[in-house]
TrEMBL record:
PANTHER family: N-ACETYLGLUCOSAMINYL-PHOSPHATIDYLINOSITOL DE-N-ACETYLASE (PTHR12993:SF11), N-ACETYLGLUCOSAMINYL-PHOSPHATIDYLINOSITOL DE-N-ACETYLASE-RELATED (PTHR12993). It comes from Morus notabilis. GO terms for biological process: GPI anchor biosynthetic process. One of its GO terms (molecular function) is N-acetylglucosaminylphosphatidylinositol deacetylase activity. InterPro entries: GlcNAc_PI_deacetylase-related, LmbE-like_dom_sf. GO terms for cellular component: endoplasmic reticulum; membrane. The lineage of its organism: Eukaryota, Viridiplantae, Streptophyta, Embryophyta, Tracheophyta. Pfam families: PIG-L. This is N-acetylglucosaminylphosphatidylinositol deacetylase.
Amino acid sequence: MAWLIIISSVIVVWVASLVKILHGSFSSSKDDFFSNGGTFNKTRRNVLLVVAHPDDESMFFSPTFSYLTSRGYNLHVLCLSIGDADGKGNIRKYELYLACAILKVPGQQVRCLDHAELQDGFGKVWSHDLLATIIEEEVAKHGIDLIITFDDYGVSGHCNHRDVHHGVRKLLHDTSQQDIEAWELVSTNLLRKYSGPVDIWLSYLCALRCSSGVTHCFINEHPRKSFLAMAQHSSQWVWFRKLFVALSSYTYVNTLRRID
């Protein structure tokens, strides 16, 4: 009987959280994500999302896509490998463009690299200096104001995700352009990671506890797009990834933290 009550409670909370997402999104910040001295900045800003593999954008960052594109920000995507660990790199590169189209990013604003020193795989070490150089070129080319990427753990702990984070940090440390901001996607523990829409409450409360302007929580206003975007990665759309997208809190909410 106790187990039945627990399971019923979990289902009720899950459904209530999903209803909240679908019928009343909210943000943890009273200010717009981009601000200047606490004043709303109405200027259209250029944002660069930096990921390691095709499908990272759909599996982990779709709430951020939803927030940025719905508010008129100019989003660019830089994917630093074609994900060729299984020999499907060219297919996965094409799938990335299809997914970005679902996420409202034009194809000309998506770049996917196939660099000899940036090959997909566990144990493949990526040079932070090389990453910083490539990212800096992309920033200069498109007049980027802000970079978004993984945090030090990289959600899943994948070494390529973590190297991308350190590449961005290297750029911030070395660059002469002091006006560039960078934000990282906060990794959560295993329980929160697979709590689905329920994590919107915890993410919201955690963001509120942080100093203003340091952390922002974005609720996915269109979670169905996460499924549609990930489904474009047909070479990767196997049963356990379908389950991941359904259960993952990253489908429903992203918490971004400013990189100092």
